[in-house]
């Protein structure tokens, strides 16, 4: 997939040897369990950014503050998490990042339910964001490093966990907030009358901690073999491959000698490369993603795509429950029960999108770029169409189309970024694009502070931006379809 000079030739030769070994082992029990455990990260990345929109109305009624400030605090935490964990996993390895992110999210999410005031709630949700912000960059790198090249499309299907997170969050919010919130006509909203959003945070914090326990105590994550060869630990990389083979009840003929031969073919016996240098200096990982003109264009386009889509989606999704309530009130059916019923329906609609995306990305002539472009265009089109709704049900219908296509769009975007970045720099690359979407996620609530979010203006902006992103997707110089990631 890469032109000469893009990837260190010695690392590339060793990565191909590891790819052959992983293909020899095949798709087995370890990869299935990893799909589940890594999927917990997608789940958390779906649940916690969504939570601020779900509880916004009730929290503002109780604490009397300007609503977008809560979303701003959460997104600042997500931004910090994206930077720290993604760059860190290329420096100190994947395992620590993989195991700590969910723990932080669960502990502080559970604590947020007991917040006595807005400042405490915003601070705790910001720390939750620090944990959650590392899940997508780290977990996608972990999964791609340990799955055979023939099954890389499963990284796109992984977005089903994102949809399941939305589904569970909406399913819990529906009865809890509808039944345990202050009456809409109440002159004052006391804590005892408004426990629904607290129950929701307690439930989601507990579930996140449970998921952390499952993947920490019941599943042993091995270190990425590509990371290990990138820091000169060939023997450990071979040992990891054999552990995966043993877990799958199969075997591989890989040995350290195979990696040494790959090195000698590229550098000669007298020359021993020092591969660990880029593992120490984070800036070297960034430079490597712009090392050639083609790679620089690819990295820049991916950062731009994530930034544009992050701004558009955050601007729209963060205030979707508010939009459904306010528009529903205009149409005479804006009760909390109907609002969260609609949110639940939207969550269900997103699930089949993940499987359709996994099928489409391997289609000839379409691949990753085509699927991303088509789904982005349709996502933007449905957003524009939603402005024509003259009833709550019509608005719900248009939003169903938006959610279905946006889940495909995000599933492909998450996968194609990880596939394009070389494994040695994948954490950093994932961090750059995640940082872009988090930066614009911070900008979105600032826009909402000074814009009238009850009008259709944010919808037009979001739709236009996403359609533009679909055009940019066709300009990506690399198409990972049919190519094993290194």
TrEMBL record:
<dbReference type="Pfam" id="PF00083">
    <property type="entry name" value="Sugar_tr"/>
</dbReference>
<keyword id="KW-1133">Transmembrane helix</keyword>
<dbReference type="GO" id="GO:0016020">
    <property type="term" value="C:membrane"/>
</dbReference>
<keyword id="KW-0812">Transmembrane</keyword>
<protein>
    <submittedName>
        <fullName>MFS general substrate transporter</fullName>
    </submittedName>
</protein>
<feature type="transmembrane region" description="Helical">
    <location>
        <begin position="69"/>
        <end position="89"/>
    </location>
</feature>
<feature type="domain" description="Major facilitator superfamily (MFS) profile">
    <location>
        <begin position="1"/>
        <end position="481"/>
    </location>
</feature>
<feature type="transmembrane region" description="Helical">
    <location>
        <begin position="301"/>
        <end position="324"/>
    </location>
</feature>
<feature type="transmembrane region" description="Helical">
    <location>
        <begin position="197"/>
        <end position="218"/>
    </location>
</feature>
<feature type="transmembrane region" description="Helical">
    <location>
        <begin position="344"/>
        <end position="363"/>
    </location>
</feature>
<feature type="transmembrane region" description="Helical">
    <location>
        <begin position="428"/>
        <end position="451"/>
    </location>
</feature>
<feature type="transmembrane region" description="Helical">
    <location>
        <begin position="32"/>
        <end position="57"/>
    </location>
</feature>
<keyword id="KW-0472">Membrane</keyword>
<keyword id="KW-0813">Transport</keyword>
<feature type="transmembrane region" description="Helical">
    <location>
        <begin position="96"/>
        <end position="115"/>
    </location>
</feature>
<dbReference type="InterPro" id="IPR005828">
    <property type="entry name" value="MFS_sugar_transport-like"/>
</dbReference>
<comment type="similarity">
    <text>Belongs to the major facilitator superfamily.</text>
</comment>
<feature type="transmembrane region" description="Helical">
    <location>
        <begin position="395"/>
        <end position="416"/>
    </location>
</feature>
<dbReference type="GO" id="GO:0022857">
    <property type="term" value="F:transmembrane transporter activity"/>
</dbReference>
<dbReference type="InterPro" id="IPR036259">
    <property type="entry name" value="MFS_trans_sf"/>
</dbReference>
<feature type="transmembrane region" description="Helical">
    <location>
        <begin position="457"/>
        <end position="478"/>
    </location>
</feature>
<feature type="transmembrane region" description="Helical">
    <location>
        <begin position="153"/>
        <end position="177"/>
    </location>
</feature>
<dbReference type="InterPro" id="IPR020846">
    <property type="entry name" value="MFS_dom"/>
</dbReference>
């Amino acid at each position: 997939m890469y032109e000469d000079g893009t990837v260190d030739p010695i690392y590339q030769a060793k990565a191909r040897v590891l790819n052959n070994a992983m293909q020899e082992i095949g798709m087995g029990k370890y990869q299935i369990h990893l799909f589940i455990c890594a999927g917990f990260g997608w789940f958390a990345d779906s649940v916690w950014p969504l939570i601020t929109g779900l509880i916004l109305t009730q929290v503002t009624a109780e604490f009397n503050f300007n609503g977008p400030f809560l979303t701003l605090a959460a997104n600042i935490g997500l931004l910090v998490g994206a930077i720290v964990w993604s760059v860190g996993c290329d420096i100190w390895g994947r395992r620590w990042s993989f195991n700590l992110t969910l723990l932080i999210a669960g502990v502080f999410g559970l604590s947020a339910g007991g917040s006595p005031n807005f400042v405490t709630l915003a601070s705790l949700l910001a720390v939750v964001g620090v944990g959650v912000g590392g899940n997508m960059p780290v977990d996608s790198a972990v999964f791609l490093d340990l799955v055979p090249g023939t099954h890389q499309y499963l990284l796109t299907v992984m977005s089903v966990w994102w949809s399941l997170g939305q589904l569970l969050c909406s399913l819990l919010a529906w009865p809890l907030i509808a039944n345990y919130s202050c009456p809409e006509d109440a002159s004052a909203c006391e804590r005892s009358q408004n426990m629904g959003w607290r129950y929701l945070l307690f439930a989601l914090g507990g579930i996140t901690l449970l998921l952390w326990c499952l993947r920490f105590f019941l599943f042993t994550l091995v270190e990425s073999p590509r990371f290990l060869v990138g820091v000169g630990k060939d023997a450990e990389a071979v040992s990891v491959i054999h552990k995966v083979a043993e877990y799958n009840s199969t075997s591989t003929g890989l040995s350290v000698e195979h990696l040494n031969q790959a090195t000698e073919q590229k550098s000669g016996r007298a020359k021993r490369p020092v591969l660990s240098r880029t593992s120490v200096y984070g800036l070297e990982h960034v430079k490597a993603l712009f090392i050639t003109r083609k790679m620089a264009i690819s990295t820049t386009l991916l950062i731009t795509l994530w930034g544009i889509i992050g701004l558009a989606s955050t601007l729209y999704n963060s205030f979707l429950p508010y939009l459904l309530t306010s528009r529903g009130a205009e149409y005479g059916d804006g009760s909390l029960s109907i609002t969260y019923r609609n949110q639940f329906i939207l969550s269900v609609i997103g699930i089949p999108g993940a499987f359709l995306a996994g099928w489409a990305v391997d289609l000839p002539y379409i691949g990753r770029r085509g699927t991303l472009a088509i789904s982005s265009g349709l996502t933007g089109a449905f957003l524009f169409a939603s402005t024509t709704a003259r009833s709550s049900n019509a608005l719900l219908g248009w939003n169903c189309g938006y959610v279905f296509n946006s889940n495909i769009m995000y599933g492909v975007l998450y996968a194609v970024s990880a596939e394009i970045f070389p494994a040695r720099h994948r954490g950093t690359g994932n961090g750059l694009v995640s940082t872009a979407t988090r930066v614009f996620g911070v900008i979105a609530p600032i826009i909402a502070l000074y814009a009238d979010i009850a009008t259709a203006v944010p919808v037009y902006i979001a739709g236009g931006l996403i359609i533009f992103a679909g055009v940019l997707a066709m300009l990506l110089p690399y198409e990972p379809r049919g190519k094993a990631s290194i």
